[in-house]
Write a structure and sequence with these properties.
The chain is of the alpha+beta class and 181 residues long. It is built from four helices and eight strands, in the order E-E-H-H-E-E-E-H-E-H-E-E. The longest helix is centred in the last third of the chain and has 14 residues.
Length: 181
């Protein structure tokens, strides 16, 4: 199965391939301006996030680049009794992970909504993503770029087995891990 269409499972999360229909729920998850402290920008409206997701789901215009995007769905219903946009007993969406794969390198990123931070969801999802990338024959290296003051994101990178390189690109430290020689 192609990487970008895989559903990945962890102990508590389902990493679901991104769909345009996730935009409204994800706009609420990502609505806190604090999420942009280290990355810049501002929260998307549901409409602008829908447009962004339409572009991401369509895929990269460059055939040498693969865009892989997942939303993180808490597998169990939350303690507040709410349900996710998929209905049923599924819990809410709590964040995203992504990988951009090109020329043997997968650049990864993650975000968990403010309300669900501090519970290990980002690390759990990042470990699953890096493990899956390690199964891809064309991927040799996984990298992430982390703001030097973003300790929580550095902890996620470390949990996924990445180590800081000392290389700084656009104000962020490059973390990396070889997954194959």
């Amino acid at each position: 199965m192609p990487l970008h269409t895989d559903t990945l499972r962890t102990a508590r999360l389902d990493l679901l391939p991104l769909r345009v229909e996730h935009a409204e729920e994800m706009a609420a998850v990502l609505a806190d301006p604090e999420l942009h402290t280290f990355t810049g920008g501002a929260p998307h409206t549901p409409e602008s996030l829908r447009s962004r997701y339409e572009r991401l789901v369509a895929g990269s215009p460059d055939p040498a680049v693969l865009w892989c995007n997942w939303v993180l769905r808490l597998r169990e219903a939350p303690e507040d009794g709410g349900h996710g946009s998929d209905g049923g007993d599924a819990g809410p969406l709590v964040g995203t992970v992504q990988a951009t794969v090109t020329a043997g390198t997968a650049e990864v990123a993650w975000v968990v909504g403010t309300r669900r931070q501090g519970r290990g969801f980002a690390g759990e999802a990042a470990r699953a993503l890096v493990a899956r990338l390690g199964e891809e024959p064309g991927v040799r290296t996984v990298v992430a770029h982390v703001h030097p003051d973003h300790r929580a994101s550095a902890a996620v990178a470390a949990a996924a087995g990445l180590t800081p390189t000392g290389i700084v690109h656009e104000g962020e430290v490059r973390w990396q891990r070889a997954v194959r020689a």
